[in-house]
């Protein structure tokens, strides 16, 4: 039996057969609308269907590959007409494969052929297409215009996922989150209309886009402010030499410094990459001599055993390259795939029992996990002088401006075998022991380090905190039928 409309899919014998019929229907709608597509099995399809996180592969029903805003709009209209969920994929680096919708069967709009970057000479505002990757944006802005934006370190990450949910990096203490650079956006809404969102037009949409953007429409173009690329920055490293009896005091010294003494110019984290030796790494807006003066109040209070391991003067693009772990960041293709599980915490502090629990777990459990690669990163995100905390939690949808730290926990297997279910407990246990003593208002999670295992309501609460009720109302306004659904997507207010 041949069935021509997806309404009859439920009557077909096998799921595989249903998918074939539905794919043909969607592909036809796209092709009839003049939208470029990947055909299942062709080179483009094979590349576009590969998830960054090998642990979470999903099979789209169809993949459109727009080159224009009109192509994006027509893709959304096909999804709407045929009753199929639509997901935008920019760089495809979602930890939970949300660019595929986090489940099988979506119409995926693959945006990464749209990566142009230009700058208005007078306003210094950049116009960026929605599938540009961070390293390409940084390279073009620097090489052609000597301008820059604060954002994360991985050159293959897509601008859209990153800027829609935060965007933290080694210039964020100084200049803010990536989303703080957003002036306005062009968005394709669930009803197929194309609108601008700025502080004067659809300002509620702009508010929502800056922190929870994947829920409201598809950004087809970004307008971003920029700053002049600095000539000389100091990259620095300090080994900490902590052991189980000094590490809590060490964390408390870091916390006191980060909260009250760190100048805005200092950007840093404490991290350990499975080596059993936590260290500081950072980027300072100033000379090495100024850095030594500004870091002294921290070094003076750290437990004995620390050493300065690195001080290097770098220009802007050298600093971006140096923290990318690659030789060149001008990327228009995805990063190598990884097979991993990750979690995050946004914390007001890490002291007392919570810090003791973190340290005990690090020394007693994590340091004994030797059969794969894991790391933690404790990013200094807030504090008195941080540019991120200059605005309140409710000024944009990003709800963690009152948090001192963003913490990432990451656990990776070096091969393609299934991530064993028995291994989830490693990071789950670490996060549980840290948060167990804390009141709910002291912690959350970061949507850009999506943890696919959180139930929907928990994820909404942890990602969006105080902004959740307003976001759910806006979801009901802009996407009531959840065309842009994914398992941790916002539920519309009823
Ligand atoms: C190697 C690596 C390093 C990282 N480093 C950092 C870091 O230093 N700092 C940091 O803050 N984060 C970092 N991240 C996390 C990163 O910010 C997120 O994974 C981000 O969401 C990825 O964006 P993307 O466009 O590549 O992902 P995608 O998977 O394409 O998209 C992510 C989400 O955004 C939605 N989306 C994509 N494009 C659009 C659009 N145009 N309109 C509406 N919705 C859209 C997708 O549907 C999906 O829900 C890193 C991730 C990786 C893999
Ligand atoms: C990007 O810009 C180049 C040069 O102007 C143009 O030829 C190309 O079509 C643009 N690409 C897209 C996807 O808009
Ligand atoms: C720091 O340097 C001192 C002296 O140079 C050395 O004894 C100590 O082991 C070093 N500590 C670390 C953590 O590298
Ligand atoms: C921990 O480090 C401190 C400072 O270097 C040192 O005095 C102490 O002996 C160390 N303790 C253990 C158990 O190694
Ligand atoms: C400890 O952390 C809490 C948040 O969990 C914070 O409110 C408090 O100020 C911190 N205490 C110190 C001494 O930094
Ligand atoms: C994992 O799979 C990918 C694609 O399927 C392949 O390119 C890669 O070589 C594999 N890696 C390992 C370590 O097996």
UniProtKB/TrEMBL annotation:
Record protein name field: Glucooligosaccharide oxidase
One annotated GO molecular function: FAD binding
UniProt family annotation: Belongs to the oxygen-dependent FAD-linked oxidoreductase family.
PROSITE patterns the UniProt entry points to: FAD_PCMH (PS51387)
A Pfam family per the record: BBE
Keywords (A to Z) from UniProt: FAD, Flavoprotein, Oxidoreductase, Signal
Signal sequence, renumbered to the chain: 1-18
Residues annotated as domain FAD-binding PCMH-type: 56-229
Taxonomy, superkingdom: Eukaryota
InterPro entries assigned: BBE (IPR012951), FAD-bd_PCMH (IPR016166), FAD-bd_PCMH-like_sf (IPR036318), FAD-bd_PCMH_sub2 (IPR016169), FAD-linked_Oxidoreductase (IPR050416), Oxid_FAD_bind_N (IPR006094)
Listed cofactors: FAD
Stored PANTHER family: BINDING OXIDOREDUCTASE, PUTATIVE (AFU_ORTHOLOGUE AFUA_1G17690)-RELATED, FAD-BINDING PCMH-TYPE DOMAIN-CONTAINING PROTEIN
């Amino acid at each position: 039996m041949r069935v021509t409309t997806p309404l009859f899919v439920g009557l077909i014998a096998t799921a595989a057969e249903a998918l074939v019929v539905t794919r043909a229907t969607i592909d036809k709608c796209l092709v009839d609308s003049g939208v470029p597509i990947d055909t299942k099995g062709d080179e483009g399809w094979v590349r576009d269907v590969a998830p960054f996180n090998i642990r979470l592969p999903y099979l789209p029903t169809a993949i459109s590959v727009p080159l224009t805003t009109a192509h994006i709009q027509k893709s959304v209209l096909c999804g709407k007409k045929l009753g199929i969920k639509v997901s935008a994929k920019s760089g495809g680096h979602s930890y939970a494969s949300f660019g595929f919708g986090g489940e099988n069967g979506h119409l995926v709009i693959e945006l990464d052929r749209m990566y142009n970057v230009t700058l208005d000479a007078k306003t210094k505002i950049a116009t960026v297409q929605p599938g540009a990757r961070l390293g390409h944006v940084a390279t073009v802005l620097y090489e052609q215009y000597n301008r820059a934006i604060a954002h994360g370190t991985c050159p293959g990450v897509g601008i859209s996922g990153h800027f829609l949910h935060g965007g933290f990096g080694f210039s964020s203490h100084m200049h803010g989150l990536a989303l703080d650079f957003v002036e306005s956006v062009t968005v394709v809404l669930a009803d197929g209309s194309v609108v601008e969102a700025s502080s004067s037009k659809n300002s509620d949409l702009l508010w929502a886009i800056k922190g929870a953007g994947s829920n409201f429409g598809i950004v087809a173009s970004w307008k971003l402010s920029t700053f002049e690329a600095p000539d000389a920055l100091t990259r620095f490293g300090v080994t900490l030499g902590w052991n189980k009896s000094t590490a809590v005091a060490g964390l408390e010294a870091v916390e006191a410094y980060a909260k009250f003494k760190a100048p805005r110019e200092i950007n840093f984290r404490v991290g350990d990459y499975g080596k059993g030796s936590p260290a500081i790494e950072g980027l300072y807006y100033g000379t090495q001599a100024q850095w030594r003066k500004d870091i002294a109040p921290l070094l003076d209070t750290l437990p004995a055993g620390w050493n300065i391991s690195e001080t290097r003067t770098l220009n802007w693009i050298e600093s971006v390259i140096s923290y990318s772990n690659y030789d060149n960041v001008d990327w228009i293709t995805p990063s190598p795939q990884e097979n991993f599980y990750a979690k995050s915490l946004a914390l007001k502090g890490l002291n007392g029992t919570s810090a003791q629990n973190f340290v005990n777990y690090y020394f007693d459990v994590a340091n004994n996990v030797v059969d794969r690669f894991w790391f933690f990163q404790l990013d200094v995100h807030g504090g008195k002088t941080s540019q991120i905390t200059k605005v309140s939690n409710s000024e944009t949808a990003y709800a963690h401006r009152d948090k001192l730290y963003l913490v990432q926990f990451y656990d990776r297997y070096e091969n393609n075998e299934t991530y064993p279910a028995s291994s989830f407990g490693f990071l789950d246990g670490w996060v549980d022991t840290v948060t167990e003593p804390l009141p709910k208002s002291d912690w959350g999670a970061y949507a850009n380090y999506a943890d696919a295992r959180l139930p929907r309501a928990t994820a909404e609460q942890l990602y969006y905190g105080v902004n959740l009720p307003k976001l759910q109302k806006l979801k009901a306004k802009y996407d009531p039928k959840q065309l842009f659904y994914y398992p941790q997507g916002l539920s519309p207010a009823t």
